[in-house]
Amino acid sequence: METSVLIARILAVVYLSVGLGLLFSRSYYENAFRRILDNPIYLFLGGWVATSVGVAMVQYHNIWVNDWRSLVSVVAWVALIKGILLLSFPNFVKAFEPWFTRRGLNNYIMPMVILLGVIFGWFGFFV
């Protein structure tokens, strides 16, 4: 349970920070995502980091129970799969390009990131 709480706290801080950044600095993030999509080194580094973090999280937190800890495992597997896809098929990210527009950030990414931050914050800091 200690590992779950630690990871939940880390994810809460990261997700809430990015979510608030998307809320208050939308154009900055829109430009950053555009640069990421246009520069292969950013995709490579993102894939490398996502794969590394995903492997570590899956290794130390592959818990499938009927509570919130399974959500941590889902995030771990999504990070691992995303990293592998970025490293193996870097052009696949172009399929998600509409999500990185102003409308996509407002309607999909920002609410999802803030919601995940609140959920992980609740379980990491208050439960």
What key phrases describe this protein's structure?
127 residues; mainly alpha; 5 helices; 80% helix
Structure description:
The protein is mainly alpha-helical and 127 residues long. The protein has one domain (2-120). Helix 2 crosses helix 3. The model has no long low-confidence stretch (mean pLDDT 93). It is 80% helix and 0% strand. It is globular, with a radius of gyration of 15 Å.
Short description:
The protein contains 5 helices and no strands. Helix 1 crosses helix 2.
What does the oligomeric state look like here?
single chain
Shape: globular
Number of strands: 0
On the 0-100 scale, what is the average pLDDT?
93
Low-confidence stretches: none
Strand content: under 5%
**Largest pleated sheet:** none
SS element count, helices: 5
